[in-house]
Amino acid sequence: MKRVSFKWREGYLVLADNNGELVVEASNSTITFTVREVLVKGLFEGLREYVEGGRGEWKTVYIDLAFPLKGKPKPVDVAFARHVDTYVGGFGLSYTVIEGVGHYITVYPPPGALYDHAIIYDDGIALRTLSRRKVYILEENNTRKIILL
Question: How far is CA 37 from CA 95, 101, 138, 148, in A?
Answer without folding.
Answer: 21, 28, 11, 6
